[in-house]
TrEMBL record:
Family: Belongs to the alanine or glycine:cation symporter (AGCS) (TC 2.A.25) family.
InterPro entries linked to this entry: Na/Ala_symport
Keyword tRNA processing attached: no
UniProt keywords, alphabetically: Cell membrane, Membrane, Symport, Transmembrane, Transmembrane helix, Transport
Major localization listed first in the record, in broad terms: membrane
Any Gene Ontology CC annotation: plasma membrane
Source species of the chain: Exiguobacterium sp. (strain ATCC BAA-1283 / AT1b)
Gene3D superfamilies in alphabetical order: Amino acid/polyamine transporter I
Transmembrane segments: 14-38, 69-92, 98-120, 147-167, 179-199, 211-232, 238-262, 300-327, 347-373, 393-411, 417-434
GO molecular function, one term: amino acid:sodium symporter activity
Name this protein carries in UniProt: Amino acid carrier protein
Amino acid sequence: MNDIINLVTKVSDWLWGVPIISLLVLSGIFLTIKLGFFQFRYPIYIFKQTFGSIFKKPKGEGDISPRQALTSALSSTVGAANIIGVPAAIMFGGPGAIFWMWVIAIIGMAIKFSESVLAVHYREKNDAGEFVGGPVYYISKGLRWKWLATWFAFALMIELIPSIMVQGNAVSSAVRETFNGNTLITGIVVAILVGIIVFGGLKRIAKVTEIVVPGMALVYVGAGIVIVLMNFSEIPNVLSLIFSYAFEPMAAFGGFAGAAVAETIRWGFARGLYSNEAGLGTAPIAHAAAQTDHPVRQGFWAVIGIVIDTLIICSTTAFVVLSSGVWTADGAMDDPAALTTIAFREYFGYTGSLLVTISLIFFVLSTIIVIIFYGSRQAEYLFGLTAGKIMKAVYIVSIVIGAIGGAQMIWNFLDLMLAMILIPNMIAVLLLSGEVKRLTTEFFTSEKYYKKDIAEEEAS
């Protein structure tokens, strides 16, 4: 059995190295060019149509507001990776990795935009009268490849079981270490709370995430900015480190072991791609339920998801770690994941480490809530509404099993299962890129959408 686990680990480590990073980078570049560099040409318009329209009544049909769709999608991406993944990228790839994280985030916008445009374009209503969409629908309706849609739905439905176990374990471990809490009791309490929310349906999930995600993000980012401002004189040095060592190797310095340029690029790309889940096909499931008058308009909200997740939250963590100097302290390489907590503790004492822990707990809780929704939608697609409810129950039980450290052997298969989801989704997005191009051209040339928005803006 150990031989099988070792083989699976080796295969998944290889897949999530050069092959998948190359697939996502090249796909992002291809889509950016095909869509006419829209994220570079219309940034102000995109911000006005998203952040600028938060308090306006949404246009078109849908079950939840565009803002709620965004916060639901962000719930599955904003989490441990933003807090503990970024310092790991800095320690293994050097400060220059942050530059490449920014580059791939901007390129990855084209992937996330395309996924969400397709999700809204090919969405339909289920037996309960709710809008449903995502990879399974644009694969089956757009490509007419029912077999690939079934593959994606089944792989995501199954993959989420160990994924939820990992999240449950993260919550129980954080509670145990910070509050000396019992892992079993933590697991049961979390399972009950999550159950109340997820069985309340999509609208209840959306209401919870639109409060939790922005609230915790503001608290975490706000505290991070305070630390950066306390080290204001270090900002020019931090920017110099990020930009200069993006293109040249960095020698060992204090607790930092040094990094070659290839490692810098790899770690930067990996952190940028993994933090916002561009290409994984999960966020489009949330965006498909949004009220919108055109698929492209909702695609802009998906782009803003990358801005918040990678360019704001991950960058905050990076500036905290670099400006505070914890990355060069003796022993920093021993536990890179703890560097954010160490930095917050240095500046805010016990309250600082408490803030990081509580942020982590809330981010993970919101992640569990939304990925259970994603998984139940796949079961519903495959077997009907009842199957979706049964899978919700299975996922909730998985929280308790994960909290007490159960099924750790399955965790080795997690990355491999994620690859089984990403690959069919990216095949579909690339093959349907012509449809994304058509819809994007339609939006920006029609008198009903972009031109109308600009005319109204000029008239006001």
